[in-house]
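Record filed here:
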Amino acid sequence: MMMVQNQSLSWKQRFTGFWYSLPIQLLLLHLRKHQVLLLPWFLLFATITGNFMQTFGAFSLFLAPEYFDKTDFFSTAIVGFATGVFIMSWNITTFILHGKLFRFLATTAQPFLKYCINNSLLPLIYLIVYLYQAVHYNSEKELLQFTEIFLLASGFTIGLLLSVMVSFAYFFGADKTIYRFIGQQIDTANLHYVLAQKEYKLPEEKRSFRCDWFLSAGLRLRKPRDVRHYSESFLTSV
């Protein structure tokens, strides 16, 4: 009986940890606030699945795009690059709107990269649906061979990755500049935290957004850092 109870508690803890992980909470946050930002995603999903402007062939513009009257590697690479630009624009916009809710990211290296990784659930779902629809459309409607479909999918993927890498190259440079500016403040705050927790009780942390776990840049689970020893102005500036 005790063993069953422990197993039940273990699964409950796992589910709680999963539910309050940053990727899941970010997805729920998008559904609760600023739902207008989900409208572009809704239109994209509806278009590639043939549920929006189907009579005008809108889905074929995404699934079998043409460049100089040809559907080839370069045409899908352009769509992939544009998709990457859209995803990064969405990440930037939501980071600006919701960044204050997860202030612990401000005390880590490359906070925007970590945000993008944890905010990738919706983009990943879209990319999976897109690639499935593209493969199905080109095999069933365009009657292309496997090698041709693979080439088109490779073009889309490379274009997407190129767009994302260009974006991160810029933000990595910005992150280094910011960290050079605030690195000393972080080290000083950490030192004060070690000394203060031995003598004083830190104030209760005001949390309007619960997050028990987040994914690091290495895709490893990490617990959010305690930020009560950082000043409000410092966290806001980051």
Q: What stands out?
A: The chain has one domain: 22-237. Residues 22-237 form one domain. Residues 1-7 have pLDDT under 50 and may be disordered. Residues 146-199 form the longest helix (54 residues).
